[in-house]
Request: fold
Amino acid sequence: MGRAVTVATCALNQWALDFEGNLERIFRSIDIAKSQGARYRLGPELEICGYGCSDHYYESDTLLHSFQVLAKLLESPATQDIICDVGMPVLHRNVRYNCRVIFLNKKILLIRPKISLANAGNYRELRWFTPWNKARHVEEYFLPRIIQEVTGQETVPFGDAVLATKDTCLGAEICEELWAPNSPHIEMGLDGVEIFANSSGSHHVLRKAHTRVDLVNSATAKNGGIYILANQKGCDGDRLYYDGCAMISMNGETVAQGSQFSLDDVEVLVATLDLEDVRSYRAEISSRNLAASKVDPYPRVKVNFALSCSDDVAVPTCMPIQWRHHSPEEEISLGPACWLWDYLRRSKQAGFLLPLSGGIDSSATACIVYSMCHQVCLAVKDGNADVLADARKIVNDETYVPEDPREFCKRIFTTCYMASENSSQDTCNRAKLLAEQIGSYHINLNIDTAVKAIVGIFSVVTGRTPRFCVYGGSSRENLALQNVQARVRMVLAYLFAQLTLWTRGMPGGLLVLGSANVDESLRGYLTKYDCSSADINPIGGISKTDLKNFIQYCIENFQLTALRSIMSAPPTAELEPLVDGQVAQTDEADMGMTYAELSIYGKLRKIAKAGPYSMFCKLINMWKEICTPREVASKVKHFFRMYSVNRHKMTTLTPSYHAENYSPDDNRFDLRPFLYNTTWSWQFRCIDKQVNAL
Reply:
């Protein structure tokens, strides 16, 4: 009959410029696909070189090595008798394109350049690539000699075309094209394309997965067809975590779901589907068929190959499944944990060091490391040889097997409580108890000697001794004395990260973890070059509200009872003197705003693109039950003053896991000045005028 097609898609943990490792993972995915009977294999976007090459795309070396890897794939027996669809950059007539290269049995069938480039948020594809703007147009691409020697071809089709096999028609989309309002699959489907293949480089954002799934299912709900999505997974060298979620959908329903968070470097999904189900689904949609009769046809590349077998009546086909989404708390537990694991093993360090204050933020960071240890033990238990090999390298023991998360945590995670005369016994006890429950190697130390020495140097030079406000000092003195403590902690964190393992007779150094949340960064409520200055920060893109919910999740799922007292305590920096042995300083009082308000300001500023006046106009309606217009004006002005005064701190912000679309990360996501006119005179005058009118 020739109606049951078997196709494969995958999620690969590729690494930018790791051509050898990327090639090995591609081969593994092809082997798995073939072993399960697949006749077509789809890989992630730019999988040969890795998606996150950034300005390395400008280098001719990146193009050269990509073609060298392609030659290895073409000449290998492993790629015979299966259509392979791989991603790489290609230079055509001196213009660089983000391409799919589709080949079969040592012959390139088509090079399909990306039409809609991702250029918002974290994406900068227009910096490195040019979109293919010639719809339904194909040109000759002259192959480099290294490929000609393998394929015997001088030229191959390059452009916007589809593949016509002996039994069906297949078209390609690349990542952003699915999200575009005029997605190619719409007109390809009207022109008779039955299988749509999308290779993606889509990163994790909290609560985003359902949007991607809905887009894939809706792509075939109105038009019929089979939709295959491949995606990058893991940390390929920067702040993003690509979250897999490879999937296969037919006629608007999911038939195969890949994992969103996993330590498996290679994950392959294979599905057998009946083409007649697509044809019968389309046959009864009269509006679709009327539109199809008028569509401009795509160029078709004929392929003497079938994705089905001639005798397939008894071949079982896949049935629809219900997609299971993670809760935001599960996403926080798993996504940053997988990102930390990739960063740890690829940086070849021996573990992490975290200044653990006994507050929510550092405790949440510790819980993410513990979750990572938990995931490593589960992966090893499930037989993941790659994870076991990496764990052995990290702990420098060729016979080691991580079985207990607490025991593994003890080997690779050091926590450090850095007390001062302003620290309470309560936070010291909370940090110690949490460290015991997760199993970290815990250090207690006191920084007063170092703080007094630094202030003493200042006093000797100037003849003046700064004092806290409670002892009669000015606000300038008060802030300076707080900052000295914070910066001493950063210096000590790096010293202990470098030498703690040396004192324990163990090799290697530790990565320092930061623990400033996205809201504090937005407000600038942190000391520049304090403990927020670290190697990486797993919670820097997560809101305080979500972190509190995550802490509750850890209490329930990891039985970390020490977190209960941490949850109930008011957030405090503990940098000002205690009053009767108790903490008098709280974060929200210092900031002049609540964390809940900060989260709203952040979303309006970044996601809603609101300046001071627009934010005021939105909030007088949002908060009309709780604030007068004059109170709203005061709050908005205070936020923008503090945001602009402290924006310079974002230029040195520790690289953080990207999880929120209102992140103030200055690196490439939130591009703003860092020297503002902090009076906002014109903008605030507009607000005042509106307040008076109201």
Remarks:
- The chain has a mean pLDDT of 94.
- The longest strand covers residues 83-92.
- DSSP finds 24 helices and 20 strands in the chain.
